[in-house]
Specification:
The structure holds two protein chains of two kinds.
Chain A: E1 3-10, H1 15-29, E2 33-38, H2 42-45, E3 48-56, E4 70-73, H3 76-82, E5 91-95, E6 107-111, H4 113-119, H5 126-138, H6 143-151, H7 159-178
Helix pairs in contact in A: 1-6, 4-5, 5-7, 6-7
Chain B: E1 5-10, H1 11-22, E2 24-29, H2 36-45, E3 52-55, H3 59-71, E4 75-80, H4 82-97, E5 102-110, E6 116-120, H5 125-130, E7 139-141, H6 146-163, E8 166-172, H7 173-177, E9 179-184, H8 244-259, H9 262-265, E10 268-271, E11 278-282, H10 284-299, E12 304-309, E13 311-313, H11 317-323, E14 329-334, H12 340-348, E15 353-357, H13 366-379
Parallel strand pairs in B: 2-3, 2-4, 4-5, 5-8, 7-8, 11-12, 11-14, 14-15
Antiparallel strand pairs in B: 1-9, 5-6, 7-13, 10-12
The chains are: A alpha/beta, B alpha/beta.
């Protein structure tokens, strides 16, 4: 089945990297098909940055995300901009400290990713906390696969930090699933 | 590398890696969106493999530099997008006239002029074929995925070396910027073609005397007399700019070496064509949307197939002539206002061809193509 995922936030949060890592995990370590398309154009320079991933067991012909099944947002701007695109039964994943929801949302999973990252000493790994959470909640990629993809994307001296960040998010994701 | 590797590359990076795998050791270019990652990647990678990267002052110089590098014995490449491709045309003609093996990647964006720098287009198809003045033939290949960017860039170098002609890799912004899995075969599994060298002593060497259609090529510094000119030249390489017979012999050969070998260069990905009575014709990123539409149409019982051109130039005239009788309608799906459509019409007749254009800035949605298929069927 074809699954479309969109990551949104503002420049500097590592939103593009989130898409790259997710698609790479699915394509290389889970043996599925995956396409990653960073968003180019004016929007990449302004407020909202986004990146897009399609994962499927079958061949992926059309490469772009049109109606995400999963929308992961880490800024209010990205939420306002991309939430209308989400499929009716789609899943919204947010950083709860950074996004204030309007009423009438469907399925929502929340995590204070940036706060958790700050607790680990580095705000910059908020995207990795979020990736862990996304993995635990959706199971669209395996934990082993995303871990490999994260660890090969970061400098050696930050591996432990990123591994911690990923695990913290993942555990919360699993917990969310249980609820 | 001795072992197969699996990478996660964008089309641009895959093309750059394909070039290096093919033996490219010289890149001269001027960065331009959406091709810049190719130059960026080559700048990083070429020094690691003993190659040379030069950022030139403009695209005229970039093209001139790769012709020079090729005559110095290197496999050479440049990469650009529409505006830069326009500036390269004069020297692409020089490359065709002097039979200089080289590769030019054009990552198409929406034009004309500076158009939409960050967004997709496929409107340089005819420019690739006819962009320089005079009668000449060229080869152009069009990949639909990062994997094909890798594979077809290698193929572009091989064809350039075999036929001694500039080969264009006609990418598009979508394929250039999307990331997918790319399988890099072990080195000994990659087919590499190198230009044929003379096997006669220097005093007997005629630099433009063909064996078959293509003359063996001695490069500067190999002990042979090397004389390269854009003027009409005889087999010695000397200008004969007032002799129509020399002109005919040369230009006929420059064209025929490509035309007469079309079948060898033909590269078509046929999908569901066995029992098709309507065929989509497409290439590059549009080929992917087309394939999705064919799948949808087949699920609903329409006998539709897809002809996806990986080699665009020389155009496979003979192939279309052959299948014309079996196909009721051809729907040409391209991000321009009718370029490949003209080639299909030329071969199968105007009445059989329907154009489904996009004007740039977006790719076809599969359902738009599917709707056109339905319309064509129900119109019969």
């Amino acid at each position: 089945m074809r699954v479309e995922i969109k990551f949104g936030g503002f420049g500097g949060q590592g939103i593009i990297l989130m898409g790259n890592i997710t698609a790479r995990a699915a394509a290389i370590y889970d043996g599925k098909n995956a396409v990653f398309t960073p968003s180019y154009g004016p929007e990449a320079r302004g407020g909202a940055a986004s990146s897009n991933v399609v994962i499927s067991e079958e061949e992926i012909d059309y490469p772009y995300v049109t109606q995400p099944d999963v929308l992961v947002v880490m800024s209010q701007g990205a939420y306002e901009k991309f939430a209308p695109l989400l499929k009716d039964d789609g899943l919204l994943i947010i950083d709860e400290d950074l996004v204030k929801l309007h009423n009438g949302e469907g399925k929502v999973a929340k995590i204070p990713a940036t706060r958790i990252a700050e607790g680990l000493g580095k705000r910059i790994v908020a995207n990795i906390v979020m990736l862990g959470f996304f993995t635990g909640v959706t199971k669209l990629v395996s934990y082993e696969a995303i871990k490999k993809a994260v660890l090969e994307s970061v400098p050696a001296k930050f591996r432990e930090l990123n591994e911690d960040a990923l695990e913290r998010g993942y555990k919360q994701g699993i917990k969310w699933q249980g609820e | 590398m001795k072992k197969e590797q699996i990478k996660f590359y964008s089309g641009n990076i895959a093309a750059a890696e394909g070039a290096i795998a093919a033996g490219c050791r010289f890149f001269a270019g001027y960065p331009i969106t959406p091709s810049s990652e190719i130059a960026e990647h080559m700048a990083r990678r070429l020094p690691q493999v003993g190659g040379v990267f030069i950022q030139m002052e403009d695209e005229l110089a970039s093209m001139a530099a790769i012709l020079g590098a090729s005559w110095g014995g290197a496999k050479a490449m440049t990469a650009t997008s529409g505006p830069g491709f326009s500036l390269m045309q004069e020297n692409i003609g020089l490359g065709a006239m002097t039979e200089t093996p080289c590769v030019v990647i054009n990552v198409q964006r929406a034009g004309p002029s500076t158009g939409m720098p960050t967004l997709v287009g496929q409107a340089d198809v005819m420019q690739a074929r006819w962009g320089s003045h005079g009668d000449y033939e060229i080869i152009a290949l069009s990949p639909s995925s990062p994997q094909e960017c890798f594979d077809l860039t290698i193929k572009a170098f091989n064809l350039a070396e075999e036929y001694r002609v500039p080969v264009v890799v006609l990418m598009d912004e979508s394929v250039a910027h999307m990331f997918e899995k790319v399988v890099i075969p072990p080195e000994n599994k990659i087919k590499i073609v190198n230009r044929k060298k003379p096997d006669v002593p220097p005093e007997k060497y005629l630099p433009f005397k063909p064996e078959g259609y293509v003359p063996p090529m001695a490069c500067a510094g190999e002990g042979y007399n090397v004389h390269v000119t854009g003027l009409t030249h005889d087999e010695k390489g000397y200008p004969q700019a007032t002799d129509p017979e020399v002109q005919e012999r040369l230009v006929r050969r420059l064209c025929d070496k490509i035309r007469k070998n079309e079948r060898k260069m033909r590269d078509i990905d046929e999908y569901e064509m066995d029992d098709a009575d309507v065929a989509l014709v497409s290439f590059g990123i549009s080929g992917r949307s087309s394939k999705a539409a064919v799948k949808e149409a087949r699920r609903r019982g329409y006998k539709v197939g897809l002809i996806r051109l990986r080699t665009i130039w020389p155009f496979p005239d003979e192939y279309f002539e052959k299948i014309a009788g079996d196909i009721k309608k051809f729907i040409v799906v391209e991000i321009n206002y009718g370029q490949i459509k003209l080639e299909v019409e030329r071969n199968v007749g105007k009445e059989k061809v329907i154009l489904l254009p996009k004007f740039g800035g977006e790719i076809h949605k599969p359902h738009e193509i599917y709707e056109k298929i339905k319309e064509v069927y129900n119109g019969d």
